[in-house]
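Priority: low. Protein: Glycoside hydrolase 123 catalytic domain-containing protein. Input follows.
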Amino acid sequence: MEQYEVIRNISNELRTYTPDVRILTTYYAGPSGSELAPSTFEAFTKVPNVLRPHTQIFCTSEWVLGTREDLVKDIIAELRPDLGEEWWTYVCMGPSDPQPNWHLGMRGTQHRAVMWRAWKEGGTGFLYWGTNCYEKAMIPSAEICFRRGLPPGDGVLFYPGEVFSSSKEPVASLRLERILSGMQDIEYLNLYSSKYGREEALALLEKTGAYLGPDRYAHDHGPVDVMRGEVYRTCRS
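Result:
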């Protein structure tokens, strides 16, 4: 609970400079050493009650949910949209295979499915903790080394151009390109939702076999192309 007090103090200090500042807080557990709730997960869902009004965007780890999409409703139930509160999600280290994440060695649709999952669960935003978090190097052309103790590629989505050529332009990873594809998929789904409603868009995502859940999604891009084709066919007029 003393760590939550630190967050409240930081929030109060920020508000002395910008009264309408919106604070985002990430977390993957509830406070320990409190009588807040009888179970670990219930304590996790009660975090908004501890941090209100010092946080407006409650950003939780996908790792907490595992494959239990049904737990989302318990998280959202504690929020106050009337006070401008939002629910975002993030990935950092976990979740691991077979769930969607952006680690090296994961299949392409697994990278792309991070965005599908965020859209299906209904959060209003998504956070990634880092894009160029390598081990420290003295020169840009030094060999790229991922941080010790992290899954390969975690926190790294582009590379220094000097490693590959004389160019100083950063080089995008394939994973970064797959993130773009996933965000574009969301635009397709939002377009379909605007015409036929969110429930129909959810049904389309499942009917095509693109994404059914965190451990049930297409292992190749064919079903995604089918989903996009259906959106194009029905929404182009």
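Residues 1-91 form one domain. Strands lie at 24-27, 57-61, 86-91, 125-128, 158-159, 171-172, 211-213, 216-217.
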